[in-house]
Amino acid sequence: MASSTSAAGNDTAAGSTSTSAVLPRATCASITIGDVTARGACGCNYNIHTCLERLSNLSEWSNSQTTESFNGCMGACDSEPNCFSFTWQTSNGVCRMFGGMLNGGAGVVSDADFISGEVVKGSCTGSCSG
């Protein structure tokens, strides 16, 4: 005697599976990495913050471009004398650079799609004054 069992969402007779699962929202472990060298014209070291988006402040210098990697964004900031912090969006490669620091958490939000960095003051050895 043959028996068949059909689970909810599965059609065993047709040999196909149909499920509708809700994927969990991306999470990110917030990590700070200190004194990373960018190797740009300014020769600065940076403190790097995962899961952190630096928000724009209209009263400071800023610039935006697309880079292929986080290192490309950090290098672009390190080659710009006016750049003291930056944020790179992992999903689309947008690199935003800013003329101010991260300000101890003011003007930033936690977001798994972003990695940000800021100049370690006094660390620049190149042609910039940071």
Enumerate the strands of the largest sheet in spatial order, edge to edge or round the barrel.
Answer: 3-4-8-6-7-5
The separation of the N and C termini measures 81 Å
**Approximate strand percentage:** 35-45%
Round the Cα radius of gyration to an integer and report it.
22 Å
Largest sheet: 6 strands, antiparallel
The residue-averaged pLDDT reads: 79
CATH superfamily, please? Hepatocyte Growth Factor
Task: Work out the count of structural domains.
Answer: 1
Describe the structure.
With 130 residues, the protein is mainly beta. The chain has a single domain (26-119), classed as Hepatocyte Growth Factor, CATH 3.50.4.10. The protein is 7% helix and 36% strand. The protein contains one helix and eight strands, in the order E-E-E-E-E-H-E-E-E. A hairpin with a 4-residue loop joins strand 6 (85-89) and strand 7 (94-98). Mean pLDDT is 79; it is low at 1-20.
